[in-house]
Amino acid sequence: MTLKEIKKLLQAEVIYGIDRLEEEIQWAGGSDLMSDVLAFGKPGILLLTGLTNAQSVRTANIIDAKAIVYVRGKKPDKEGIKLAREKEIPIFSTKYMMYTACGLLFSHGLPGVSKIQNNK
Predict the structure, then answer these.
(1) What is d(CA 5, CA 50) in angstroms, rounded to the nearest whole number?
(2) Distance between CA 85 and CA 79 in Å, rounded?
(3) Which one, of 25, 29, 28, 79, lies nearest residue 52 by Cα?
(4) CA-to-CA distance for 63 and 56, rounded, in angstroms?
(5) How far is the C-alpha of 54 from the C-alpha of 97, rounded, in Å?
(6) Phi, psi angle pair for 55, to nearest 5°
(7) Residue 66 CB coordination number (10 Å)
């Protein structure tokens, strides 16, 4: 699924990364606990979170996430946007709650990561 398809499906606003909408996403994961993201994240993941400070971008960078979607209409702070630009991580905002956003992505064929998949 491309970032363009994800943007449309989640009715998301592009905060940064409009030029990266053709990138393919293989899996997604959602969490507001960055320690969980570090535990389950894998390169290429689409991270869904409600945590809007720069720590979410730092964590996405560490796990080599392809993009971040902020849920519940939230948007990152200025430091987070600046860091996303520096690290070239596309960021989006959707009005959907995390459960709904993840469910929409999953029901349209984007799998989530799991501990079992992460260990392979």
Answers:
(1) 21
(2) 10
(3) 79
(4) 11
(5) 20
(6) -60, -35
(7) 21
pLDDT, tens digit (0-9, with 9 covering 90-100), for 44-91: 999 999 999 999 999 999 999 999 999 999 999 999 999 999 999 999
Structure tokens at 78: 């200025």
**First-residue to last-residue Cα distance in the chain:** 22
Q: Where are the beta strands (DSSP E) in the chain?
A: 13-16, 28-30, 46-49, 67-70, 91-93
Q: Which domains does the chain have, with CATH numbers?
A: 3-111 (3.40.1390.20)
Q: Which two tokens stand for residue 83?
A: 């860091």
pTM: 0.92
